[in-house]
Amino acid sequence: MSYFEMAIIAFILAGIAxxxxxxxxxxxxxxxxxxxxxxxxxxELKEKATVGDVAALGTEIAELKxxxxxxxxxxxxxxxxxxxxxxxxxxxxxxxK
Length: 97
What we know:
Elements (H helix, E strand, L loop, with lengths): L2 H24 L1 H4 L1 H16 L2 H45 L2
């Protein structure tokens, strides 16, 4: 075997080694980086979401629902008033001709 052939084989093996090494870096779960990051996010979420926060959110949602119900009634009354006015103007408009 000549030195040239051995150099080619060494070059190919070095290329395979680099590809395997970089492939391991491309997969963060195999190095544990992704697992650590997810663990930190989970810890932060646990610290921020307390039972009091959830209860306060429930209260806010109930308040919003009651406001929406009140707005719905106002909207219905406004719609009925507009329909009456529209009917009045249509009636007056057809009588004028």
